[in-house]
Design goal:
Helix 1 crosses helix 2 and helix 9 packs parallel to helix 10. The protein is built from ten helices and twelve strands. The strands form five sheets. Strands 1-2-3 form a three-stranded antiparallel sheet. It has three domains: 78 residues, no CATH class; 116 residues, no CATH class; 116 residues, 2-Layer Sandwich (Enolase-like, domain 1), CATH 3.30.390.130. 32% of the residues lie in helices and 15% in strands. By secondary structure, it is an alpha+beta fold. The longest helix is centred in the N-terminal third of the chain and has 16 residues. About 14% of the residues have low confidence. The structure holds zinc ion (ZN) (2 copies). One zinc ion binds next to loops.
């Protein structure tokens, strides 16, 4: 599952052991994701050099980057007369399942209010939009009506750990904030969290497709418009079965891709989607209205070699772009 080249890349780039690199890659399952997340962690940790001393004991790097501990500089400013004006973010202790997946960062009130006010002035964002996208409540109660003094008082208490920091920023969504308690349930029983605003997926999204077989053949008949190439024929077989005591009827579908570079690329993405149970689901058939049948799950396939878009066939100039977008929306990206 983990390639040696990928491990080497991590060892060289981040100066970590092979064992650690392998661990990271296994944790994320996806090479690009692992780089993103790992870089994010490093950036967020080593820029913090003014952490108050009472927080220093709570620095708890996730198992992933214990080796970076030496790189975290802790300077105790409390003994000096003047501390830094804006205190850095404390780390999130990555204990909860959502925090493990998103590597979120806690956002105390001062930082959040400054961000929102900046957006209101420079981007003309309506203050009503600064609410948690899940519960639709203020991030911090009435935070935009508090005086600067009140905000600073609350902020200091948060930094010192006297009151909790309830708002988090997900690691890839630099402008999207949530209540910690609202994100947490999203990660329960699943290996992924999806940002409700931009749809970015953290972790690996798995679907509920029943067991099945994806069979691939190369056939000497071209897709219309791709006469120079053979075609890739994909046969999906999902047998009837039952899940949680509920029966569903299976399906067999045949789909085609031209056997060229782009077709092969999409085939690889479809294989990943299939292995993550994302291509089919159990639902109601749009064509027959029958319940509890295995149906497509939003990733479009060409079920005909010809006839154009109207017949779910080729040619269809925007099909590749669309199917890649549909795959990306489920966390599967082209290399
Ligand atoms: Zn909320
Ligand atoms: Zn987002």
């Amino acid at each position: 599952m983990t390639h040696f080249g990928e491990i080497d890349f991590f060892v060289t780039k981040f100066k970590i052991s092979r064992k650690k690199a392998k661990e990271i890659l296994i944790t994320y399952g996806d090479f690009d994701e692992a780089i993103d997340e790992f870089e994010f962690q490093i950036n967020n940790r080593i820029t913090v050099d003014n952490l108050p001393s009472d927080k220093s004991t709570s620095i708890n790097p996730s198992p992933m980057n214990e080796e970076l501990k030496e790189e975290i500089k802790v300077i105790d400013n409390e003994s000096k007369e003047e501390g830094p004006k804006i205190l850095p973010k404390p780390y999130t202790v990555h204990k909860s399942s959502a925090a493990m997946i998103t590597r979120w960062v806690e956002v105390p009130i001062r930082e959040l209010v400054d961000f929102c006010k900046y957006q209101m002035i420079h981007a003309k964002v309506d203050p009503k939009e600064f609410i948690c996208p899940i519960c639709r409540c203020d991030y911090y109660n009435d935070m935009l009506t508090l005086s600067d003094k009140e905000i600073d008082e609350l902020d200091t208490k948060m930094i010192k750990g006297e009151i909790s920091i309830d708002v988090v920023m997900l690691s890839k969504c630099k402008k999207h904030f949530y209540h910690k308690d609202c994100v947490e349930p999203m990660a329960k029983d699943t290996a992924s969290v999806k940002c409700a605003i931009c749809g970015v997926i953290y972790g690996t999204l798995y679907g509920d497709m029943p067991a099945g077989v994806m069979e691939i053949r190369h056939i000497p008949v071209p897709c219309e418009g791709y006469e120079k190439y053979r075609s890739i024929e994909i046969i999906y077989t999902i047998p009837s079965g039952s899940k949680d005591g509920k029966r569903h009827s299976g399906t067999q579908r045949i789909a085609y891709l031209p056997d060229n570079e782009e077709g092969k690329e999409i085939l690889e993405l479809l294989k990943i989607a299939f292995s993550r149970r994302l291509l089919f689901t159990v639902g109601t058939s749009i064509t027959t209205g029958v319940n509890d049948v295995v149906v497509w799950n939003g990733i479009h396939h060409k079920t005909s070699l010809r006839g154009g878009a109207m017949s779910h066939g080729y040619p269809d100039p925007t099909y590749f772009k669309r199917v890649k977008e549909e795959l990306a929306a489920k966390g599967i990206h082209s290399k």
